[in-house]
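Please, structure for the following, as tokens.
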Amino acid sequence: MLNVMSSLPFWEGHIVDSVQEQEDGSLLIVLQACPASDALCGACHQPCALVHERRRRKVRDRDMLDKRVWLDVPVRRLDCHHCDARVAEHIAWLDRRARITHRVRLWVEALAQLLPIAHIARLTGLHWHTIKEIDHRRLQHLHGDFSAEGVRRLVMDEFAFALHKGHRYATVALDAERMRVLWVGEGNSREAIRPFFERLGEEGCQRIEAVAMDMNTAMDLEVRQQCPNAEVVYDLFHVVARFGREVVDRVRVDQANTLRAEPKARQVIKRSRWLLLRNRDNLKAEQAIQLEELLAANQPLATVYLLKIELKEIWYAPSVREGARRWKAWLNLALESQIAPLVQFAKRLAKYRRGILASSIYPMNSSVLEGVNNRIKVIKRMAYGFRDASYFFLKIKDAFPGKTR
């Protein structure tokens, strides 16, 4: 076995002195400096013959078959006559002061793109914090900064996250054309999102022509101040979701409450929430039939359901003129319905008319935001054990590196 180990190319500048099996079944490979190789200064990487002291370090290497592998490595402290420094020698496959080899680091980096940290810790036997730090450095190198070159359209959204007690909000900014997350930051106030525009720079802000967002007043105001040439576009996904919560759900509950004397009919309406909120195309055949029967039996529910469908059509208008016509028709129907939650919603929505009609000029696909939100939820589910927001945000950026042009 020693002869086989001696021919392995993993430990440049060193030779295998012995291989010992430990009580726990792991292997301890004792290395010695190769007599034919010069020690290299850790500062200038020049050959150095003056050795100040010799020490040994135990480091972890990648597993061999089913065996954990540890290395006993000699590390010389050199007096370099090139740069006049007294430093530890440069070892090509081991970072200064590191307790794991480059092979282990690369192994962990590959696993971290597929598995949660807790699973990698069980697989490799490395500590949770060691794995997290390796992955954090990888992500920071890849996504720690961003280039605003060519960014013309943005999607901005907020999401809830809870790495500690209580719920907090974060904001994500995405390049809408390349599907690339540019920035993630804690908070959803104007002050919280301002650092993004500062990093975008004055020239980058001037270049932004459209920003899709929820009807968030703080975000709206900050975008208008920082990006004077940008048109705010209100996202269909968020508006329809809000319509479902504030109108469809409210009307459903009100209608159920009017049927207290008819328990069976009341239960049918109470249990119809997902039938009413889900897209019609996503319903199974029997569910579609149930929906038709429900709407035929309840006029207020039929009204708000049909107006939910008509509301979507405003976003798909081929021109601002046609969008305005569809908006006016929808608003009149909503106000004439005399359904209180619907009337209230329509009056509030009227204030956002410009941002709704802008979708005909800048058709920012709402499925972009829906996809981002769903992926963030998956990352959150995999993220049990994440203890800092910066790492979590880097994982989000890594999930959306962007399409190549």
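The mean pLDDT is 89. The radius of gyration is 30 Å.
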